[in-house]
Specification:
alpha/beta, D-Maltodextrin-Binding Protein, domain 2, seven-stranded mixed sheet, six-stranded mixed sheet, 10 helices, 15 strands, 21% strand, globular
Length: 292
Amino acid sequence: MKFVFSILFFSFFFIISCGDKQNLKEVELENNRDSKIQEVKQDTIPVIYVAVSTMISPLETFNLYKDVMDYISKKLNVQIEFKQRKTYREVNELLAENKLDFAFICTGAYLEAMNKVPIELLVVPVVNGKPYYQAYILVNEESNINSFDELENKSFAFTDPLSNTGYSYVKNILREKGTTPEKFFSKTIFTYAHDYSIQAVKRKLVDGATVDGLVFEYLKNFQPEKIEGIRIVQKSEDFGIPPFVVQKNLDKNLKEKLRRVMLEMHQDAEGKKLLSKIMIDKFILAADSLYR
């Protein structure tokens, strides 16, 4: 009997301290803004709250974006505190509850939130000269699977229920075929990080997976051992790239300063170096039409 279940690879919560000389801080996952009121009153440096959706593993995601956020905090003379979460829905909930000032979220999560949560696009990344990305469908090189259709009755890994490349893309393919993931695959799992899905295929825990092509290309460039033995059998059309969003009610001056720092980051030697580490050319302005 076919069934669907979800597993969490390397399920853990983490706290990372960033030395006293850094303006960027990591906060406990369960902390909320109220718990910081006394600290804010004692510190003249404004505090803004950010989350970066887990595209790579939670620890890897934090480490990748920590330097970028520290750069922004120094440019704005603000203290940035992370409110990291495991799932895309949890980040959306923080935005809905006004517990975040800005966030880097998945395209699918943005589509889910854009008409329900008081947020707006701040900037979007440009990667390889364009503000688009793709889904990659992966299999193990040792398998005899050479196309998506050959994954029928096989096991398959998704990333997150709100992920565009890690779930919705394949779900929509199957809808067009008149079926569902539950019927098409023998079993499915949710890994909650794109690199976990890649490792599931690499270790033959599943027969296939759909992942964010940006994550795959990042690993290909910086950690190639993690994609050894993986074959891409299908790439999607271009989708609007995951954006940075901001609360609509954030102080207007702070919002504009934040936007300007990010838009000009690639023109600064230090900023350009930090962006290159996460394979981003620059940030640009964009409209919601990019995601329609």
